[in-house]
Design goal:
- By secondary structure, the chain is α+β, with helices and mostly antiparallel strands.
- The protein has one domain: minor pseudopilin epsh domain (minor pseudopilin epsh fold, 3-Layer(bab) Sandwich).
- Helices cover 29% and strands 23% of the residues.
- The chain is built from 2 helices and 10 strands.
- Strands 3-2-1-7 form a 4-stranded antiparallel sheet. It has a 4-stranded antiparallel sheet with strand order 4-8-9-10, with helices on one face.
- The relative contact order is 0.15.
Length: 198
Amino acid sequence: MGTDTDMIATPSGRRHGFTLIELILVMAMLAAIFAIAAPSLSKFFRGRVLDSEARRFLALTRLGQNRAVSEGTPVVLWMNPAQGTYGIVPDAAYESPLARQSRPDTNRVSFVVGERITLAYCAPLLTQNGSMNVTMNMPLQTGTQPGYIRFLPDGYVDESSPYRIVLREGDQGEMRITQSAHRRYYEIEDTTNPNRLR
């Protein structure tokens, strides 16, 4: 049995509610708002994929560095721009093949970059006296040339390691992961101010 509060009536005795025309107008307004906001939202989500990939790569540099220090052996972060893959492994040059077979590494980590993201890096240039020369505008290595970041047991990055790693998402933008001035770690570069790291 209904009560008086179940139905709200007007003085003329009719119930309140939305008419079909009012619902259509509200739906049209929502469609217009989504049409205006959709390009901004899609750009935001594309940027988030690139940012997420850069942070994952940066986290892997930290893992490689921590493993090198804790295990007392060099660790290599390898990059394959042609396949869009990267990962960390112990430095194969440090151990004999027999030692590697008797103690296989179960902590290998590898990743594939996200769809539409490309990976490139700037390798230091070898000078005439044999030292490495690092400049801000070094050419990017892409294609079939693999790259290697070597983390040493003392916590430093080997001087032959790439100075900068660049992740690009089509024409949407890029994220740069740059080696610190004292070769201790990598950081995401602030592209609005190239002299400052985030």
